[in-house]
Amino acid sequence: RPAAPSVCVYIGALGARVICDNIPGLVNKQRQLCQKHPDLMQSISDGAKEWIKECQHQFRQQRWNCIESYSANGFISLLFILLNLLLSLLSFFQEAAFVYAISSAGVVYAITRACSQGELKICSCDSHKRGLGSDNNGEFEWGGCSDNINFGIKFAKAFVDAREKMVKDARALMNLHNNRCGRMRFMKLKCKCHGVSGSCSLRTCWLAMSDFRLTGDYLHKKYNNAIEVTMNQDGTGFMVADKDFKGSTKNELVYVESSPDYCIKDPKTGTLGTDGRECNKFSRGLDGCEVMCCGRGYDTMPVKRVTSCDCKFKWCCSVECKVCEDVVDVHICKPSMRPEQKLSRRPGQISARLTQ
């Protein structure tokens, strides 16, 4: 299967203005940024892939499991998914808080990576750190070229926040706040040792982005502890709904409205429902059949699974495994009852059928 064409192919054939004017959902500020920096649109597309994949992973064992997989071709389709998913979650739910934060983080991550890899004309890696530094292990010398996350944050803020800055209402304030939380810096210090026999008498260090999975884990924890807020009277900020709350919301995800149960498919809330979802018969958590299936029950079916087994290291240098097949029981949530089915199941009709 051929690879999806890149943004460079699209723009080379049609021109930046034509492409940017025909991307659905962009506001004027975003179109201007697209036309000025068309090569950055590929990074935004890569960011969309990154955060959608991570969102699916983080919520794989919950009723709301982010967004179904898309087999989109090219950057236009993926950007369309990103923008319209955000638009489809115009609600004030807790899940929307996570989506805005992780999508903003995905754009930062992808642009920063592209800068460091020399894929963009407008930026490169960050070579400003020089001289001596220190950490818990002692002194080190700044060297190499650190990831240029400052540029990634700056552009992501300008592009992602542009839509929300057009209006001043509770939804926009909530989204801007959660966007900022998603852009918090996730950098780690990487070092290389120098010295006789690896004594590490001298270290050369640089800053690099952490794995995006760590960002997803962090934001999922923030989601679990998200704070319900209400808009203040003058419309300039939030008040915490819980009057007994004494902490700060500055670095916390916020939401305005309690989430639905996500049991039934509803495009308005971005949920696919739990019909046909796999559940854990032995768990009492969110992935357990009782919770996942919303009390509808589940079906158990045998499924053949193929795995690698009896793996052995072969000199040199490979690992050889056998292919093993086993049959396991898989538990699947029963489908929800359609409205017409509920109406047809009146007590009188049921008893009449039983007595025939």
Automatic annotation (TrEMBL):
The chain crosses the membrane at residues 70-90. It is found in: Secreted, Extracellular space, Extracellular matrix. Signal peptide: none annotated. GO terms for cellular component: extracellular space. Keywords: Developmental protein, Disulfide bond, Extracellular matrix, Glycoprotein, Lipoprotein, Membrane, Secreted, Signal, Transmembrane, Transmembrane helix, Wnt signaling pathway. One of its GO terms (biological process) is cell fate commitment. One of its GO terms (molecular function) is frizzled binding. PANTHER family: PROTEIN WNT-2B, WNT RELATED. Belongs to the Wnt family. Ligand for members of the frizzled family of seven transmembrane receptors. This is Protein Wnt. It comes from Oryzias sinensis. The lineage of its organism: Eukaryota, Metazoa, Chordata, Craniata, Vertebrata.
